[in-house]
Amino acid sequence: MCNFCDSSVQFIIKNDQAAYFQFASIQSEAGKALLVEYKIPENIDSVILIEQGKAYFESTAALKICRKLDGLWPVCYVFIFLPLFIRNTVYRIVAKNRYRLFGRKKVCLMPTPVQRKRFL
């Protein structure tokens, strides 16, 4: 329902030609199973990256995702050196206001057959 979340997934798919990333909604059965498997707290309402057996949240997840994308996006990983409280404060401000800033979708777009393979 979130335009920002949907746009972020579409952006990652477009800029991840190696198809490194797979996706699951937190509300889906696969998403719920991953939350349990990786002992992710239920109050996490953020992008979650599971990589090499470890779960990352908020700005750390976003920056680690950038690091694997095509083009110049890996340069953004330099922000990992900012203190976590600063990075996550900015992340939380955007996340808290995402519906107001980016709107909501009334209907979710169905992924193409190629994109569908990337969803758990």
Notes on the structure:
The protein is mainly alpha-helical and 120 residues long. Helices cover 45% and strands 7% of the residues. It is globular and about 40 Å long.
Sum up the structure in keywords.
globular; 120 residues; single chain; mainly alpha
Query: What is the number of independent domains?
Result: 1
Number of strands: 2
Approximately what portion of the residues adopt beta-strand conformation?
A: 5-15%
The whole-number mean of residue pLDDT values reads: 88
List low-pLDDT spans.
none
Order of helices and strands: HHEEHHHH
Spatial order of the strands forming the largest sheet? 1-2
Helix count, DSSP H or I runs of 4 or more residues: 6
Helix content: 40-55%
- Straight-line N-to-C gap: 18 Å
The backbone outline, from C-alpha atoms, is globular
The biggest sheet, with number of strands, parallel, antiparallel or mixed sense and barrel status, is: 2 strands, antiparallel
Structural class: mainly alpha
- Rg, Cα atoms, Å: 14 Å
